[in-house]
Amino acid sequence: MSVPTSTVSLTGVGKRYGRTVALADVDLTFDRGVTGLLGPNGAGKTTLLRIVATSIAAESGEVRLLGRDPHRSHGEVTAVRRQLGYLPQELGYPSDMTAFGFVEYVAVLKEWNDREDRAREVRRVLGVVGLADQATVRISKLSGGQRRRVGLAQALIGNPQLVVLDEPTTGLDPAQRADLRRALSELGNSSAVLLSTHQTEDVAALCERVVVLAGGTIRFDGAVTDLVATAVGRVWLADEPGEDALVSWRTGTGRHRVVGGTPAPGADLAEPTLEDAYLLMLGPDLRPAHATS
Amino acid sequence: MITGTHGWHADPALLRSYLGGDVDAITGASLEQHVSRCETCRTAVGNLIEPQLLERTWAGIRDAVERPRQPYPLRVARRCGLPERTVVLLASAASLRGSWLLGAFLSLSFAALAAYASGGTALAPFLLVAPLAPVLGVAAAYGPRQDPLEVLIATAPYGRTRLILVRTIAVLVSVLPVTVLLGLAVPGPPWIAAAWLGPALALVPVQLALAALVGPRIAVTVLSFVWAGLVLNSVRPGMPPTWPVELAQQGVYLAVAAVACIVIAIRVGSNQQPGVPL
Q1: Pairing state of beta strands A33-38 and A192-196?
Q2: What CA–CA distances, in Å, run from B80 to A102, A181, B175?
């Protein structure tokens, strides 16, 4: 009986840029479904995503993508790329291309050689991201959110088994984000989706599993509900800002939401959110950037 | 015709003749006018058309509307047998668009004109521009930190190396014929019309090999300066104007090109992991 292999399996993976350690001894496996990757800037999220997307090679450790070793041979990495959809964090859009032209170009790079099949697939993915009516519009005329959706459309070509999305919701308004969540949740039924984002609400809405990365190492890897549970009893609503709180702010009701620290007299325990749990998980790493207000 | 309470409707036999193109011009025009206004007849026409034909026609219309029009040189290339998918890939390369080709043609023409006006004593402008035109085209056609889709190209199964080579060949095919023709018009020894091809073809692999290390922009800048230095060297008193393309120098270019090809081959062969071979 063969042992089932994970769609993605990273073991002891490391990567440096000069003297800077981007990833250190990272172990991560995931399968079908949407896995959220959270972490502050410089945590190593993009490096991790680029390794999974075969854009860069890991310096150490073992990488298995779709049961293959992309470092082994050109054939292996090409086989992985045939089943890969990748939306990089920063994607240049040739401004003189139309949305259709751009996605079609990527479809050719993904070996959609038949003209009619390719056109159908381009229309399908533009429809999935809600841009079917904008197919003939030049990318330079599209809004930032629409461009991001064009980028996402190319990542969906051919319903790839492995989809790597770096900040896909950047620049989207709430309605567009809701549409995108719907598309990604459907995609998660058939593909392994690794989603990096700063938006904890996207992870809470979409992912069963969340990985928190900081300083190039994994701080948490588990169910979203488990991460939220780590914050139970550590979030309050109080009349005063918490003096030793990790973060606190005045809410619309006039009371202060206090995350971490010691509760002030009269404080009421509050239901924690994923964001609260994420902030508490990172703890000291956040202090320089998030002053108590 | 079938008449009813809401006027008349075309009978199926007439509609079949209309679809088959078997009705005379007046009946056809009349029927067309009617069908455009009558929902019942439009539905009847729709039922008489083969679904596959309808689908193909609709796909053709969508294609005409949605698919970007390819540049003229590429449309010609497609008619000559270039695969459609390759045309789509090449259309994204800046150096294969009409504006770049026109610019290359104009600069080459001016250089050839200068050589012609001097009666063959001033070959430097032509020898400066002609070998650099393909290299500049190659540099403009691809490259790390230059192609906005670099990341996607690098992670696509088509392969970045393959794309670069396809674009390079396309640049050579598009630029070389014009340059050869202009070379024929340049006065001087008859062999000069072909002699510049040596450095031109040698510079392309050197550009590819250098671009892999320092990027296409720096590579083409370095090569342009080196080549300009060689050509300017021939302008010194006592030097023949054909010096940059004489046999001894051609040997050197060949050797440099061979080294560049070896560098490319080693790089492509050794780097089989994620990342970019070229």
Answers
A1: parallel
A2: 25, 46, 17
- pLDDT for A293 equals 39
Sequence-separated (6 or more) residues with CB below 8 Å from residue B250: B195, B198, B199
Task: Output the six-digit token pair for B208.
Answer: 């590819």
CA distance A29 to A5: 10
Q: Is A113 on the interface with B (CB under 8 A)?
A: yes
- Residue B278: per-residue pLDDT: 44
**DSSP run (H or E) holding B243:** none
Q: How many CB atoms lie within 10 A of CB B213?
A: 10
- What length is written for chain A? 293
Q: Which residues of A are less than 8 Å from B71 in CB distance?
A: none
Distance, in Å, from the CA atom of A79 to the CA atom of A72, rounded to the nearest integer, reads 12
- Angle at alpha carbon of residue A227, lines to A222 and A230, rounded to 5°: 130
pLDDT at B2: 55
Cα distance between residue B28 and residue B32, in whole Å: 6
Q: Tokens for B206? A: 């050197």
Chain A contact set for B63 (CB, 8 A): 119
